[in-house]
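Customer ticket, subject: "Can you confirm the structure for DH domain-containing protein?"

Message body: Hello, I'm evaluating your service for our small team and ran a test protein. I'd like someone to confirm that this is what the system normally returns, since I don't have a reference to compare against.
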Amino acid sequence: RKLLKLGKELEEMLLYQKRHDGNKFMKMLLTYNDYLEEVFKNVEDETPSGNKLYKALERELGPPHLRSKVYNVLMTRMFNLTFEQVEEVEGIIEKTREMWNQIQYVVNNRTLEGRADMVHFV
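Agent reply: Thanks for trying us out. I re-ran your input and got the following:
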């Protein structure tokens, strides 16, 4: 639940471009990444909680803040970040995107392997 709530908060911060504390925003991004890393580990280990979180994220079409565009100038003004910090934000978001893609790959591969096993037994 924390992961989903945090993702929505990040998305809202990016969408509505109100003045925010840039350091808090970056910390939230890193926390989200840590949570998503746990989801990845749980999905790889095929735990019920990992599968449940994956399905919840899938219903949301992935991490919600990944759908938002990062505009350097707006980020520097609205979050009071330097251009270097904005590049760091972009890097964190890219890392999140890659991790989400890895999670999907693991789940999809498992699904394909299961189907191949079923076909083999038919």
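A couple of notes from the result: Residues 83-121 form the longest helix (39 residues). The two ends are 40 Å apart (CA to CA). Feel free to reply with more questions.
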